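In this section we walk through a basic example: taking a raw amino acid sequence and producing a predicted 3D structure, encoded as discrete structure tokens. The instruction is simple. Fold the sequence below.
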Amino acid sequence: MGVGHSSLSSCSVDSLCIIAFTAQPKTSSFSNSNRQKPLFPTKKHSPFAVLKIGTLNCARVAGEMEIGKGIAAAGKPIVDLHGIDDGLIQKIVYDALVWSSLHGLVVGDRNDQRSGKLPGVGMVHAPIALLPTSFPESHWKQACELAPIFNELIDRVSLDGKFLQDSLARTKKVDAFTSRLLDIHSKILEMNKKEEIRLGLHRSDYMLDEKTKLLLQIEFNTISSSFAGLGCLVTDLHRTLLNDYGEDLGLDSKRIPGNTATGQFAEALAKAWTEYNNPRAVAMIVVQTEERNMYDQHWLCTVLKERYNVRTIRKTLAEIDSEGQLLPDGTFLVGGQAVAVVYFRAGYAPTDYPSESEWRARLLMEQSSAIKCPSISYHLAGTKKIQQELAKPNVLEKFLESKEDIAKLRKCFAGLWSLVDSDITKKAIEKPELFVMKPQREGGGNNIYGDDVKETLLRLQKEVSEEDAAYILMQRIFPAVSPTFLIRDSICHKDHAISELGVYSAYLRNKESVIMNDQCGYLMRTKDTQLGK
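The resulting token sequence is shown next.
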């Protein structure tokens, strides 16, 4: 289960958008009451109770076309983009940019060096899709139903230290970053330290394969599952736009499902803080030294304070090393303040550990009694190698009893293989366009595609080293390609794009008591087929 963080580097390629379930378009007007819904609701909304939702039946763009080598033919957009008047598009784009500025749907401007350090400096709108993306109800429900099952699986895997160590043993020899994480895990195991209160804020990412019509998992993120805050805002933006322009577009804002990600993530953090049982303690957000996605994080902290009166502090790993203190009873102090919950929005990539200072900080936190989100064992349980190991025959049965749950998980597994499988390696060399080669790296931009897969595999065979253990092979998924309006840097482009659905979930357990195990909203990311893979 790969871990990931949607960084600003990927935002130049990815745009945030929202799902709209496909149904017959309506041309009725909508009341203003639809615009007054609070930001970041905590209760789950079910669009299925009030809507009759069918299968994909939207208008096609005239003349389906092939986009690039190995990309599936264009799918079905939510509306015929060729039929929309340019003047209307300009009005919608203008309103979307105003709304984004007024409601905090913003990121730091990469052209302003201070934008990643100082809030309020160099803010620009987040890259967004102008209109919602259609998605079939049956696959949406499937993704939502999988969330609590994956949560339980990750929790049980995290408790099996031997499985984690053994599965990653070969990777440890050739991957310095994974090796350091495993060293920390080993020290915690030697201490016989039990994480009685365990918190996970997760996101499982999927693509809908156009040929097989199967919903296939890309990865399961256990650390720094980002964009819960901004994703909720995009839901509200699209609802507002369809309230205003739905009649002209033939779209109904009620077809956009509610998004509860920020509210429920805040609820999970607050419940964990309560379980820690120290009203003077704070929740600490571990951040990068420069973070242009800080507003996504600030939305979560704001809801946590305003709704639950939980105070937060933001610290880098280097600052934690400098200011952190571990008391004999396990209490973790930073700057003299007791920390109840440590929420990682950094620490998932080698670049987050430029010196030994950062590694000392990570170990110190793991040794403390503070609730880690994620703990080192949850972090390792989300690696790509563990994802591949869990896809092997009879492995899920070691962790789950329900045959029905196991079948549901297996149905969404794409093909996953170790490079020691010579038959698969041979096939990947012969047809590299059908595979993705993944290293144990997170944050985007690390995967290997196309002819580069062939070249890398041939190089590894020639060198006869154990470097192959640093990678896994995954079946390449080919989702439908659709024309989409994407807005970046205040400019609207009509691109051919593919979409990726992320379903958030929260898991909180104290000893034998499961306090929370819920699906918590969603994120739809749309990628230009010429840029995103």
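Looking at the output, two observations stand out. The longest helix spans residues 137-158. The chain has 16 helices and 20 strands. In the next section we compare this with other chains.
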